Amino acid sequence: MGEVRKLELVEVGEGFRFEADELLEAAKGNGFTVLAIVGELPDGSSWISGTANAGETMILLERAKHHLIFGED
Question: Hey, is 36 helix, strand or coil?
Answer without folding.
Answer: strand
